[in-house]
């Protein structure tokens, strides 16, 4: 059994504790939704606001930091892809919850959010984090600091770390979840004009594409959702 450094052990425990707190907060809001049918719209809106303000920004930050580090392990790459899809499922369910028009529908969708998040957090705690903790080349505390930095600001993504066939799908998923004023900053070894055309076809002028570096070795592009429309 691999020896885990004290720093990695402490960082892993902090991450697990945060997952527990997040899950408890989701469960409390789902419980409020089921407790009193007369105030279900307020409880629904409180859960939607919580997921959009806390859970999904955390998910974006994980994808850009913890998950990208986990992609270094071939046996975890498929798991990482599945967990990114689960983030997308939580986002989709949250959108459906916001549109729910009856207490029964709202409770059913909210229960789905809780179940997906509970399974997701369990897999991350029990499968992904142990691999990172046990690797002496990983400073999990530094990864955690990077995750907090990303959660508080723009998302940096080294596209070269993603399998080529999956790049556009992952980038488009991250772009969909950008908050107003936030940017996805990608680093890539070529000018990704096909990606730009795809984003413009989907979002029109709703996103801004800005070059921060134009080769010859690396391109860095900020894809930003404006804070306000002019």
Ends apart, CA distance between termini: 58 Å
User: What is the strand tally?
Assistant: 4
Report the mean per-residue pLDDT as an integer: 88
Helix content: 55-70%
Count the DSSP helices. Answer: 8
Largest sheet: 4 strands, mixed
User: Ranges with pLDDT <50 over ≥5 residues?
Assistant: none
* H-E order: HHHHHHEHEHEE
Strand order of the largest sheet: 1-2-4-3
Tell me which oligomeric state these chains represent: single chain
Strand portion? 5-15%
The value of Rg in angstroms is 19 Å
Globally, the shape reads globular
Structural class, from helix and strand content?
alpha+beta
Account of the protein in words:
With 230 residues, the chain is an alpha+beta fold. It has two domains: 1-137; 153-230, 2-Layer Sandwich (Translation Initiation Factor IF3), CATH 3.30.110.40. Helices cover 66% and strands 10% of the residues. It has eight helices and four strands, in the order ααααααβαβαββ. The chain has helices at residues 6-35, 40-64, 66-70, 74-98, 103-134, 140-152, 167-176, 193-203, and strands spanning 155-158, 183-188, 208-214, 219-224. β1 (155-158), α7 and β2 form a beta-alpha-beta unit. α2 (40-64) packs parallel to α5 and α2 (40-64) packs across α6. The chain is globular, with a radius of gyration of 19 Å. The protein starts with 5 loop residues before the first helix and ends in a 6-residue tail after the last strand.
């Amino acid at each position: 059994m691999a020896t885990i450094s004290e720093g990695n052990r402490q960082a892993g425990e902090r991450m697990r504790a945060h997952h527990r707190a997040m899950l408890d907060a989701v469960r409390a809001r789902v419980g409020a939704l089921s407790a009193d049918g007369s105030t279900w719209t307020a409880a629904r809106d409180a859960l939607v606001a919580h997921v959009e303000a806390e859970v999904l920004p955390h998910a974006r930050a994980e994808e850009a930091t913890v998950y990208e580090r986990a992609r270094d392990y071939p046996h975890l790459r498929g798991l990482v892809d599945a967990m990114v899809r689960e983030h997308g499922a939580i986002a989709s369910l949250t959108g459906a919850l916001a549109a729910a028009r009856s207490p029964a529908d709202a409770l059913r969708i909210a229960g789905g959010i809780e179940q997906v998040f509970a399974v997701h957090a369990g897999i991350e705690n029990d499968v992904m984090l142990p691999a990172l903790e046990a690797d002496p080349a990983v400073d999990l505390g530094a990864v955690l600091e990077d995750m907090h930095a990303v959660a508080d600001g723009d998302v940096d993504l080294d596209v070269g770390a993603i399998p080529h066939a999956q790049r556009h799908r992952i980038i488009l998923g991250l772009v969909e979840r950008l908050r107003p004023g936030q940017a996805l900053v990608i680093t890539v070894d070529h000018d990704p004009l096909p990606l730009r055309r795809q984003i413009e076809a989907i979002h029109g002028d709703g996103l801004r594409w800005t070059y921060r570096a134009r080769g010859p070795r690396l391109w860095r592009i900020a894809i930003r959702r404006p804070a306000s429309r002019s």
